[in-house]
Amino acid sequence: MAPDILAEITSMLVEIVGDEYLLAEEVTMETTFNEDLALESVEFVALAELLHHRYGADVDLMGFLAEKDMDAILAMSVGELVTHIARVTRSSLAARIPSGGSPASAG
User: What are phi and psi of 99, to 5 degrees?
Assistant: First the structure.
């Protein structure tokens, strides 16, 4: 699941900052939003919007950031966001599956 989420976030970042910038910088789980990608606040807002469209309201980037202090936000890596999304989407999926059921039977 994490490699898929990382690929989706990378695609979103390409859409936001442009592929010519990201071609020089491979996005990994260790890539930081501030130091490595130099994401501006308006770009974080755009990322939050894309995440909301892709994963729904449960993946609330602004709420996730609100739980962190400024130093933690500045040091945040793509991997932290991937982990957050994986945890939220797994919890969301588990809540939609009836007890003892399978994802196929939940639809």
Answer: -55, 130
Global pTM reads 0.80
Q: Give the tens place of pLDDT for each residue, 50-62.
A: 999 999 988 999 8
C-alpha to C-alpha distance for 28 and 79, rounded to whole angstroms: 7
In angstroms, the CA 51 to CA 32 distance is: 17
Q: Looking up tokens 């007890």, which residue turns up? A: 99
Per the structure block, which two tokens stand in for 15? 């859409």
Q: What is the 3-state secondary structure (H, E, C) of 69-90?
A: CHHHHHHCEHHHHHHHHHHHHH
- What span, in angstroms and rounded, lies between the C-alpha atoms of 17 and 25? 12
Beta strands in the chain, from DSSP E residues, in sequence order: none
The residue assigned the tokens 């990378």 is 10
Cα 33 to Cα 48, 75, 87, 104: the distances in Å are 13, 7, 20, 36
